[in-house]
Amino acid sequence: MEYIFFEGDFVPADKAKISVMTNSFHYGTAVFEGIRAYWNQEEEQLYVLFAKEHYQRLLKNCNAMFMKLPYTVEDLVNITVELLRKNQIREDVYIRPIAYFKDLKLTPKLIEYTPEIAIYTYKFGRYLDTSKGIRVKVSSWRRNDDNSIPSRWKVAGAYVNSALAKTEALMSGYDEAIMLNQHGFLAEGSGENIFLIREGKAITPSYSEHILEGITRAAVKKLLKNELIVEVEERPIARSELYIADEVFMTGTAAEITPVVEVDNRKVGNGEIGPITRELQDLYFKAVRGMVERYKVWLTPVYEK
Ligand SMILES: Cc1ncc(COP(=O)(O)O)c(C=O)c1O
User: Fold this and answer.
1) Fewest Cβ atoms nearer than 10 Å: which of 165, 184, 213, 246?
2) Domain end (from 83, 101, 122)
3) Residue 159 in contact with residue 30, Cβ under 8 Å?
């Protein structure tokens, strides 16, 4: 049987239901996370990647949304491990925690409501093509401004912006969108942060560019600096720089490290995955599966050995 952690209990998946009158369903005020767990066949172990970091972000975002959950980061990590054990997951899996106001009341506000959280597991393989790379389009939709709906927080309502950009890209024959911020500089993809490589140096938009503070972005920065000995610069990036970059890749829990081989019908470099992106991918995919000893600190093992 498949279980979902729902409003305080592990319940069979078909019992985890909310009403159409649920307040957060109407106003997009839910706060969520996307977490991956990777199966290591040799060790017969499932590793949750950056469990603590995701729940830290979730609780901080909940706090900003006046959503006081009765759980600590440690509680939520333990609940997730228990859920994975109950569902006997022995393959790569995606985990979706979502906190919401359960009240059956109409008024778009964040106070005097009751927050709840649900956590479920979802089988899903690669989100984008990590082996061949993707074609992206600079979107006509601008990224949410921090003073309207902060992109920094992973709140459901902000994803209307992502859905518009992703749909436009897909309907125009591309795989993914890159959004500019209100100042016309690169922000991020519909569900990914972005990096450029120029003359051996990595460049990524800083936190002040109206982006989500990506957990993969932070990990990739460390790998670039400490393992590949590639300097990382954080600053505003103009759209024109994207068209002359040597390599471009996107990062995210779902997207992992996805190479971008074409932007707005211009090849990135020679149109193939660049050497820095490839080396980074090799290392990342080993690390997340527990195959690099010094990066096991990123992982929470699910099964007791
Ligand atoms: C808009 C957006 N940017 C960036 C990311 C990447 O963040 P992370 O690496 O924490 O998954 C995500 C995915 O969660 C996202 O939805």
Assistant:
1) 184
2) 122
3) no
95 and 141 belong to one structural domain: no
Query: What residue numbers bound the domain in which 171 lies?
Result: 134-287
Number of folded domains that form the chain: 2
Expressed in angstroms and rounded, the spacing between residue 253 Cα and the centre of ligand 1 is 7
Tens-place pLDDT, residues 199-236: 999 999 999 999 999 999 999 999 999 999 999 999 99
Which atom of ligand 1 is found nearest the CA of 57? Answer: 10
* Distance from residue 184's CA to the centre of ligand 1 (Å): 20
Which backbone phi and psi does 141 adopt, to 5 degrees?
-90, 130
Same domain, 166 and 58: no
Convert the pLDDT of each residue in 161-194 to its tens digit: 999 999 999 999 999 999 999 999 999 999 999 9
pLDDT tens-digit map of 63-84: 999 999 999 999 999 999 999 9
Cα 146 from Cα 210, distance rounded (Å): 6
Burial of residue 18, with CB atoms counted within 10 A of its CB: 0-12 exposed, 13-18 middle, 19 or more buried: middle
Query: Which residues belong to the active site?
Result: 154
C-alpha–C-alpha distance, residues 25 and 267, integer Å: 41
